[in-house]
Design a protein that fits this description.
Blueprint lengths: L11 H15 L1 H7 L6 H21 L1
C-alpha cells in the first residue's frame, strides 16, 4: 500500500490533488475520518445498516 506521487516542475498542487484522488480510491480518506473519534457500537451498527440500505436502493435503481 505504498502511495507514490512524483512532483514535476514544482507543481505541488497538482501532486497533492493526485495524492488525494489515489487515497480516496483506496478508501484511506474514509478510514481516516472514521477513526478520528470513538464511535459507540450502537452508532456503528446504525451507520452500517444505513449504508447497506443505500447500497440496496442503488442496486435496485440500476
Amino acid at each position: 500500500m505504498a502511495l507514490e506521487i512524483k512532483v514535476f516542475d514544482n507543481q505541488v498542487e497538482k501532486a497533492l490533488k493526485a495524492l488525494k484522488r489515489q487515497m480516496a480510491k483506496e478508501g484511506l480518506l474514509k478510514e481516516l475520518k472514521k477513526r478520528q473519534a470513538y464511535e459507540k457500537p450502537s452508532v456503528k451498527r446504525k451507520k452500517k445498516q444505513a449504508e447497506a440500505r443505500r447500497k440496496k436502493l442503488k442496486a435496485l435503481s440500476r
